[in-house]
Design brief:
0% strand; 63 residues
Amino acid sequence: MPFLLATSLRRWLLLSVAVPVGAAVARKVARGIEARRGPSVVTKGLTRAADAAQRTKRGRKGR
């Protein structure tokens, strides 16, 4: 039974740490490629992927 808790904890750590770090790396790579070669389909895709990974679900502020 304790291993189930450890599995859940590992999954939570992966999602809370690795995904934002991966998004930051993708954004940095996209900016580096754009600086050298200009905008392209690849850089736009990397930027969109980074945006999607960092997007959080937020409710309306007025609620």
